[in-house]
Amino acid sequence: MTTQVNKTAHAFDKVRLDALLNRRFFYAPAFEIYGGVAGLYDYGPPGSSLQANIIDQWRKHFIVEEGMLELDTTIMTPAPVFETSGHVARFADWMVKDTKTGDVLRADHLVKNVLEARLAGDLEARGVAAAPQDEKDKKKKKKGAKAAAVVLEDAVVKEYETILAQLDNYSGPQLGELCRTHNIRNPDTDNEVGEPQQFNLMFTSSIGPTGQHPGYLRPETAQGHFLNFSRLLEYNNGRVPFASAQIGRSFRNEISPRAGLLRVREFTMAEIEHYVDPEDKNHEKFKEVRDVEIVLLDRHVQEAGSSATKKMKIGDAVDQGVIANQTLGYFVARIYQFLIKIGINPERLRFRQHMGNEMAHYATDCWDAEIHNSTGWTECVGCADRAAYDLSVHSAKTGHPLIVRQALKEPIVTEKEAVEWNKKVLGKTFKQDAGTIQKTVESMDEAALVKLKGQLAQGSAVITSVDGKEFQLTPDILTIERKVFKQSIREFTPNVIEPSFGLGRILYTLLEHSFWSREQDVERGVLSLPPLVAPTKVLIVPLSARAEFDPLVLEVSTKLRRAGVFSRVDDSNTSIGKRYARNDELGTPYGVTIDFASVQNRTMTLRERDTMDQRIGSVDDVIAAVTELVNGTIDWGEACQRLPAYDGVQAVD
Amino acid sequence: MTTQVNKTAHAFDKVRLDALLNRRFFYAPAFEIYGGVAGLYDYGPPGSSLQANIIDQWRKHFIVEEGMLELDTTIMTPAPVFETSGHVARFADWMVKDTKTGDVLRADHLVKNVLEARLAGDLEARGVAAAPQDEKDKKKKKKGAKAAAVVLEDAVVKEYETILAQLDNYSGPQLGELCRTHNIRNPDTDNEVGEPQQFNLMFTSSIGPTGQHPGYLRPETAQGHFLNFSRLLEYNNGRVPFASAQIGRSFRNEISPRAGLLRVREFTMAEIEHYVDPEDKNHEKFKEVRDVEIVLLDRHVQEAGSSATKKMKIGDAVDQGVIANQTLGYFVARIYQFLIKIGINPERLRFRQHMGNEMAHYATDCWDAEIHNSTGWTECVGCADRAAYDLSVHSAKTGHPLIVRQALKEPIVTEKEAVEWNKKVLGKTFKQDAGTIQKTVESMDEAALVKLKGQLAQGSAVITSVDGKEFQLTPDILTIERKVFKQSIREFTPNVIEPSFGLGRILYTLLEHSFWSREQDVERGVLSLPPLVAPTKVLIVPLSARAEFDPLVLEVSTKLRRAGVFSRVDDSNTSIGKRYARNDELGTPYGVTIDFASVQNRTMTLRERDTMDQRIGSVDDVIAAVTELVNGTIDWGEACQRLPAYDGVQAVD
Questions:
Q1: How far is CA A356 from CA A28, A93, A106, A359, A602, in A?
Q2: Orientation angle between helical segments A107-125 and A154-165, nearest 10 degrees
């Protein structure tokens, strides 16, 4: 029997979590000693490790499991690529300027903040607002929300709620209209704001010493996949479906980055581009995920002004047309499984469908994995059907075919009228009109060609070009014959299903979902990260820095390394309790203590982070148990059956 | 007994290797369908895997083994950081412009190419030049080297050779002088070139919507480490030595990128910053590497115009002062071990010391790991002692102390004269001169203070400021007393030893060192990548696409995955021989064939890439053997003792 732990004794406290993450250097504002730059963060040792472990799991879950083709393409991109893809024209947010100070605000965020503040003020005035938890919290709330506690008319409340539910669906001019209609001003100055203007989110640069080649930093890794499509297809022996995958840095010059990792200017993404036959978007492994249950928020519900979700099996969602096709559904399920595996709380995860105007210009259907955290529901993964958009536009622009050529099992045999020209006579007879004549005849349908053939058989025929000129044709100029055509190759541009992961957002929400404080002491924070992604798996704690412990410390760390378990030694000059408390904050799931008894009897204690239970066993038994715990082949209950409880005094917290 | 393989039957052929790397999509010019951009490359599936495996080994060899603190910092960097670090002023190459066409050339490359061409022309004229291997090669040589076959005077040959040996040591104006003195012109146009000008290699951008915050893309990851030094030190419990490590993308806007991965504009680096006490640069693990033998090319040899290397034990090199200190020597040895481990040929690896002018502005000693390839010796790793430069300048600029505070075991007790001011009287008496007076007194040495004290005891004293003014001081203004000072904390700015790896260069030279062609057929290229870094470890080859093979294929791939061995199935529609030939080009070290016998008897054949030897055994024995082969616990000879030779016919090449 294992100890019961109450993780909800204290309400979630973002201030405490942020302090912990900063103190333990999970991440910190980049260039902090220079005053920092909004939207740029550095990951310290535990943050880097956590990110690397999430990436490692992602690679196994997606790339290895599905045999995807991994890519590593450049960030710096010449301008023509993003001109073709549509990013230069459309990858923009709407910003408004304070009419007096010139401060720049993101239009949709402004509307959201002001309306939410008014609704909060309304609740407060009606006396139904939750009391702020403490002074700090109160101050914080006040800063974001300057609206006075004023009761709103019921119709106004309803209107605001509808606007907020559909906010992502408004165009720039509509956002401007909202500001005017509802008197939405810059809350920091109470000044009016101007008309929304587009601001392109790509960072610009220039390539080479002459400054003549404009470049952009990619805002997503996707184009690097598409441009290499022909090579990837060849690598895959010419067959679809297959997927390419890439993990890498992208950049977006956000207008107003949020504090923290949720909206940053430089971030690590993991993107999959899965290429399918547009006429067959079924997925051969769909049956494996049919019964996965997901919480969905579809577009119709949102367009009706609601946020009501429903729980569905993926199989039903696809069968009922809620999700457009099996491949999209397969990835929605696989995304769900991945997020749960690394420790996201399934109760705080939903899939929201994009509304019509909200969808990227290329997409035909799109579902976001939204994870709930202290700021609300946050898009962490997008899963879009980009159709043939990207491959088509790049192909059209460059003249390089980005298509699949598929041998047909049964050739398609067709019979039709075929025109053959005597070009010499045609040219001699009609000179500069020859081209027009060819075009005119070749654009005729079957019936017209049959008629023309009949007339030519009579000696001559008159045709009329689109601009109304008439020409008389004779059989020495062209012949028309019925011929059999056999098509043995089918050519098509594949469609692309794109799951796209923002790793920083996932990492941050995972930290929120993992954080709690000890029931007996709110100051003692714990990050219950699953062993799979925890930065360090096992902490090795020698009771003191005595040299006689060194050989055993070395032995344990070497044996753990050989077993593939990442451990760290903490031989700092503080009490064991403090060292364990520090590692609870770092999310280290297990600790082993080496003391005098260890040296004499070759025994070690094993401590579990969440319960603080301690067990004891021989050095090798403890290493074997902790290896299995980390690999997930046993749980703590099973470990407790193998190792007796420890009730010594040296290693208590 | 294993088969002997002759890997040098055919001379190395870069054209064949490049064709292979392109055909198998190890890497390819980025944006190729848009015409490409010089210096930007995308890695395809095998290149990405090879790179990921090299990084994985690097992490184990350096970060895990030494307990380094990993970081992940941003690429986008606000301008003030690089102004302080000196990059804005000095991170530049010298370029010259063709005086007529305006074409831009890198000055040192121009001198090198022209002088090397003249020396080659001289050899040709003397009839001692090696004959070009084939027409293609001849053409290529001609393009780079337009110099006529003219005999040079012996003194001129000697002079050119001396210039080339010291080329990295010339300043911009000196390069200009060389062009004039030796009539060095643009070889493409034969026009003169102008005076060398500095071109800064950092890509510029701007951060935020207002365009007011200039930024640079980092040209190295190092500054991200230094700016976080205080946090890292705290994470390490305030102790030095320790190291931070980071793997990430960097950018340099090269003037003239070379074809291929050797000089690119965007690249992945792995950098270590090891922080040491400036008064103790010994390394506690130095004894472990003392006997590692390295080929060295020291600065004195180069400055004397020679390139003669010598082989030394690292221990001797440090003892004799060839390498500045143990920590630098330790990393030189560890770099050597890493490169050998991943497959670099030790015969083509040397460590070259930077000459005085060549060294970066911050460094006090620097050794490059240079790897030999078809273009000559190429810097792939730098190992520099950056001293306290970076931490000092950032600290001075920001006012944020980047120092170590160390408790002294024995406090240092000193006695000295201490000055105490009566500031009120001082100010009243001397007004704006008060500051000058304080400075003058406080800069006095002990003897001067004792003298002044004596004079004050007499009633008054006259002092002279640096600018010659005299002031009369009296005991009501200041008192001087002998006091005891106890210093229990020592503060110092640590020095930084920086091993810095260019992963793309290492990857490319590794490919060159691994490439050869079968003795019997030069068209059949092989990449003998070590299993440790090979993109795929085991190829699973079902004899045909029959459904009856599927369960066994699935079983083998699942078992290999569980054993941690990355495999791929090749069930394409070609012969087994062709599939193996393709995978020889991909560097896959082992292959297993599943045929009818496998299904009936549960046996499989195991093929070794280099020898093409085939052995046979039960499915589980083959899986066990290949797992050990990949993990390096047995070699092919041992595998052959376990598994009998196979002399069947189905799976021959």
A1: 38, 17, 21, 6, 66
A2: 150
User: Any idea how long chain A is?
Assistant: 653
Q: Which residue has the tokens 């290397």?
A: B309
Q: What is the DSSP string of A521-535?
A: EEEEEEE---TTT-S
Q: Which of A33, A209, A561 sits opposite B95 (nearest CB)?
A: A209
B480, with CB counted inside 10 A (0-12, 13-18, 19+), is: buried
Residue numbers in A near B585 (CB within 8 A):
none
Of A28, A204, A572, the CB nearest to B237: A572
Contact A76 B40 (CB under 8 A): yes
The CA distance from A635 to A622, in Å, is 14
- Judged by CB atoms closer than 8 Å, whether chains meet at A74 and B224 is answered as no
- Chain B contact for A21, CB < 8 A? no
And the tokens for A274?
């899965």
Query: What digits encode the pLDDT tens for the residues B592-626?
Result: 999 998 999 999 999 999 999 999 999 999 999 99
| Residue B143 confidence (pLDDT) above 50 | no
Residue B19 makes CB contacts below 8 A (sequence gap 6+) with none
How far apart (Å, rounded) are the C-alpha atoms in residues A585 and A596? 27
- pLDDT tens digits along B112-135: 999 999 999 998 888 876 544 444
Task: Assess B568–A contact: CB distance below 8 Å, yes or no.
Answer: yes
Q: Select the residue from A231, A239, A541 to test the B interface by mutation, using most B Cβ atoms within 10 A.
A: A231
Strands B76-78 and B213-217: antiparallel
Mean pLDDT on A481-497: 94
Question: Which of B44, B72, B248 is opposite residue A228, by nearest beta carbon?
Answer: B44
Q: Does B251 touch chain A (CB under 8 A)?
A: yes
How many inter-chain contacts (A to B, CB under 8 Å) are there?
A: 201
B251 vs A76, A248, A569: nearest CB: A76
Cβ contact, residue pair B73, A43, below 8 Å: yes
In three-state secondary structure terms, B90 is helix
Residue B156: which of B188, B127, B121 has the closest Cα? Answer: B121
Beta-carbon contacts of residue A82 (< 8 Å; ≥ 6 apart):
A88, A91, A202, A216, A223
Per the structure block, which two tokens stand in for B399?
């006012």
Q: Residue A274, SS3?
A: strand
Nearest to A209 among B81, B104, B248 (CB): B104
CB B37 within 8 A of CB B213: no
Q: Chain B, 313-352: which have a CB under 8 Å from a chain A CB?
A: none
Q: Measured between alpha carbons, how far is B42 from A75 in angstroms, rounded to an integer? A: 10
Q: How far is A282 from chain B (nearest CA, A)?
A: 21
**Could B33 and A266 be called an inter-chain contact, meaning their C-beta atoms sit closer than 8 Å?**
no
A424-475 per-position pLDDT tens digit: 999 999 988 998 999 999 889 999 999 999 999 998 999 998 888 899 999 9
| Host H or E run for residue A605 | strand A603-608
Q: What distance in Å separates the CA atoms of residue A112 and residue A133, rounded to the nearest whole number?
A: 23
Judge whether B42 is closer than 8 Å to chain A, CB to CB: yes
